[in-house]
Amino acid sequence: MSNLEETARSLFKEEKVNLIIGFEEGSRHPRPFFCTSTDDIPKLILDKRCHNNTAVYLTKKDLLGTGLVGIVATLRVLKSALQLSLENQINEGQFIFIAGEDASDVQVLKDKASIQSYVDAHPEIPDSKVEERLHHIESMSREDRWAFWKNELSKCIRCYACRAACPLCYCERCVAEVNCPQWIDPWAAPLSNMEWQVNRAMHMAGRCTGCGACYEACPLDLPINLLTKELSSEISEDFGKGISGNVLSSFNPADKENFFK
Amino acid sequence: MKDMENKDNNFEPRIVAFVCNWCTYAGADLAGTSRIKYAPNVRIVRFPCTGRIDFMLLLKAFGSGADGIIVSGCHPNDCHYTSGNFHARRRWIVFRNLLDFLGIDVNRITFSWVSAAEGAKWADIVNETVDKIRKLGPYTEYRRAKDYTEEAKQYE
Amino acid sequence: MKRYIIEKSKVNEWLKQIIKSTERVLAPVKDGEKVYFRPITSPQETDYDSVTTTESAKETVFPRTETLFRFKTEGKDTTLSEVSAESYPQTVLWRARPCDAVGFLPLDAIFNWDYKDNIYNLRRAKLTIVSFSCNTSDSCCFCTSVGGGPGNTEGTDILVTLLNDERALAEVVTEKGEKLISLCPTLFKAVESDEGKSSALAKIPSRFTSEQVQEHLKNAFDSSIWKQQSARCIGCGACAFVCPTCACFDIQDDKCGRDGKRIRCWDSCGFSLFTKHTSGYNPRPEQSMRWRQRLLHKFSYMPDRIKVLGCTGCGRCSRACPVDMNIAEHLYSIANYNHEK
């Protein structure tokens, strides 16, 4: 148990870290910060306003440089890191995690097992606003649900901020950028926006950690985290938590459904 | 896309069927050689296995004018490629939940296991689906979302 | 420029007349926490509280998706059909901001630079802008640092300033604007002076000048500042798409079989594949290069080549950015940085 500043200093000095990815004060709220020297350590902050999921930088190889990298990790960052590790996108020993929710109380986690124990010891508190919105949509009639999503997705400008902010969207060439075949029309229109979100949700099936970065990144506040959240809860109901491998790349002969004739 | 509606509102559904080659397609063949009559509204697309059917194909079918869809393949444990239909089953369980949440009419999609010996079952599946879609009407609600706000209304 | 006074209480009557005689009137409309330019059918739908809208007004002349032409193929023959001019609606943009109006100038320059874009010009000719001076601003605004201001009349057809009493000042810059005044001639009284307009404007101190930035950018291509500033950028298109002056686009075909439409849609230089060649080579493979391109394009290349600055200081990019790439902050650093380091 120590504070962020001391921990950061010792990482630079003892562990020979070249870079610590953390948070600093921004114009109106905290923002990600790349701390490359001990002079910048006082800028590092950590409190409950630090929402950005900085795990998105863990797969950006040209930002990380060579050598050990430290990362100030809130719970959502750790969960994303665990999923990234499951998918072989990051390796044990590549990063040192400074885990905590407040700068006064952080701990250093270096290996997968200790990160998993930390995450297990801090169960997620469901966000009541998200749950409420989800139930509201679930209780609508089919026609109303279609009207709701068509209205929301007609606003989408296809900036792909949702994709860019998600730590698990790390494909170097996204399906939306493939034009042979062009599965997803690249222009902004209600149906093509819906096709894009369907693809995003399906590609996140069973992988989404529920951090809400997609929603927070969206410049138009479209509630797209509800799509991935809905799928996540349906998947845990249908297939159980903790299945080995990702839900769509594995199978179980005992899977149950009630709609095949 | 013209809906096949005439003044009596006697619309003929357009159904696209995504089927696997080894079971359902063979079953459909059997229905033909057995001279079983069934509704002509279905256009069959043949895949080597249901595991190959991308979920986007269903959305593309609706977007291009289909009013209903059939997805059919080998019974579990009978897949020609051993586990393709298990992957497919998982995919459809997840996908169907997503479609329902978005308000897309999942009643318009029939999923079935039809083996190569079940020609009669294939005919029944098609007939039931066509009847159901005839009652539901054309799926114009979906295609209307294709328009972008600045779609030209007049051309020279 | 002609000046008129109208009673604040009569402005809605004027707007009602405008709505009656115009095909489409776009005004800021609240949607949750966001504000968008949407078609209105009654004056009450307008939101006057927001500093500015979430998205810019460039959609009036450069929509996110538009048809360029239609093609039909029969046998060996292909017929092309142009979009007819009647398709483009006569539009009044109501309660835009001075930073929205001035944003049309770089767009005019880009779409008439070497090729005169007929479709853009048709839409532009049918657009009349009524901007309202700003009496409030927020921390992302920086119009005064790029040659603009809360009471700027550049680019607009009419600028309305809500004065500190019950009156409003309407400064008419163009004939298009004069046409709108003539819809309700009895509501307007011609005046000579600006009736103390500056006391009704927001105070926005300038943080730097565009000349300072341009000077510093001249030898900044290899500077280390680009990597520093862009480290947190996640490479989405939010800044480019909400910006009033960003005009990069992609051309695609929306087809069914062999018939369809050729479409123009928005694109962003921030996307990693924006400059990827079919050979596989990408001249801007790193985000720092793309960030540099964004700033150099707006503050160096555009002023040099088409004599217009590519930024209006509206601050939308900073508000929309998921990681707070506050452009005013970055520009201030550039203007005060030793790039030789």
The main pleated sheet of chain C reads as:
8 strands, mixed
Q: Provide the β-strand percentage band of chain B.
A: 5-15%
Helix-strand pattern of chain B: EHEHEHEHH
- By CATH, the topology of chain B is Rossmann fold
Tally of contiguous helical segments of chain B = 5
Q: Number of DSSP strands of chain C? A: 12
Helical content of chain C (DSSP H or I, runs of 4+): 25-40%
Give a nutshell description of this structure.
The complex is a heterotrimer of chains A (261), B (156) and C (341). Chain A has helices spanning 4-13, 61-64, 75-86, 112-121, 128-138, 142-155, 161-165, 190-203, 213-217, 225-239; strands at residues 19-24, 31-35, 69-73, 95-102, 105-109. Chain A is of the alpha/beta class and 261 residues long.
Question: What topology emerges from the helices and strands here?
Answer:
The complex is a heterotrimer of chains A (261), B (156) and C (341).
Chain A: H1 4-13, E1 19-24, E2 31-35, H2 61-64, E3 69-73, H3 75-86, E4 95-102, E5 105-109, H4 112-121, H5 128-138, H6 142-155, H7 161-165, H8 190-203, H9 213-217, H10 225-239
Parallel strand pairs in A: 1-3, 3-4
Antiparallel strand pairs in A: 1-2, 4-5
Chain B: E1 15-20, H1 21-33, E2 42-47, H2 55-64, E3 68-73, H3 84-102, E4 109-113, H4 119-136, H5 140-143
Parallel strand pairs in B: 1-2, 1-3, 3-4
Helix pairs in contact in B: 1-4
Chain C: E1 2-7, H1 11-21, E2 24-31, E3 34-39, E4 65-74, E5 77-82, E6 91-96, H2 98-102, H3 104-110, H4 118-125, E7 127-132, E8 158-162, E9 167-172, H5 175-181, E10 189-191, H6 210-217, H7 225-230, H8 238-242, E11 249-256, E12 259-266, H9 287-306, H10 316-320, H11 327-335
Parallel strand pairs in C: 2-6, 6-7, 7-8
Antiparallel strand pairs in C: 1-9, 1-10, 2-3, 4-5, 4-12, 8-9, 11-12
Helix pairs in contact in C: 6-11
Summary keywords:
heterotrimer, B: 156 residues, alpha/beta, Rossmann fold, 4-stranded parallel beta sheet, globular, C: 341 residues, alpha+beta, 2 domains, 8-stranded mixed beta sheet, 4-stranded antiparallel beta sheet
Structure commentary:
The complex is a heterotrimer of chains A (261), B (156) and C (341). Chain A has helices at residues 4-13, 61-64, 75-86, 112-121, 128-138, 142-155, 161-165, 190-203, 213-217, 225-239; strands at residues 19-24, 31-35, 69-73, 95-102, 105-109. With 261 residues, chain A is α/β, with parallel strands linked by helices. Chain A has two domains: 4-121, no CATH class; 128-239, Fumarate Reductase Iron-sulfur Protein, Chain B, domain 2, CATH 1.10.1060. Chain A has a five-stranded mixed beta sheet, sandwiched between helices. In chain A, a hairpin with a 2-residue loop joins β4 (95-102) and β5. The longest helix of chain A is centred in the C-terminal third of the chain and has 15 residues, at 225-239. The radius of gyration of chain A is 20 Å and the shape is globular. Chain A starts with a helix and ends in a 22-residue tail after the last helix. Chain B has a single domain, classed as Rossmann fold (3-Layer(aba) Sandwich). Chain B is of the alpha/beta class. In chain B, α1 crosses α4. Chain B contains five helices and four strands; from the N terminus they run βαβαβαβαα. A four-stranded parallel beta sheet of chain B has the order 2-1-3-4, sandwiched between helices. In chain B, α1 (21-33) links the parallel β1 and β2. Helices cover 41% and strands 15% of the residues of chain B. In chain C, β4 (65-74) and β5 (77-82) form a beta hairpin. In chain C, α6 (210-217) packs across α11. Chain C starts with a strand and ends in a 6-residue tail after the last helix. In chain C, the strands form two sheets. An eight-stranded mixed beta sheet of chain C has the order 3-2-6-7-8-9-1-10. A four-stranded antiparallel beta sheet of chain C has the order 5-4-12-11, with no helix packed on it. Chain C is of the alpha+beta class. Chain C is globular and about 65 Å long. Chain C has two domains: 1-61 and 85-205, no CATH class; 207-341, no CATH class. The A-B interface holds A 137-138, 140, 142-150, 154, 183-184, 187-192, 194-195, 198-199, 201-202, 205-206, 227, 230-231, 234-235, 238-239, 247-248, 250-253, 255, 257, 259-261 and B 54-56, 59-60, 63, 76-77, 83, 86-87, 89-106, 110-113, 125, 141-143, 145-149.
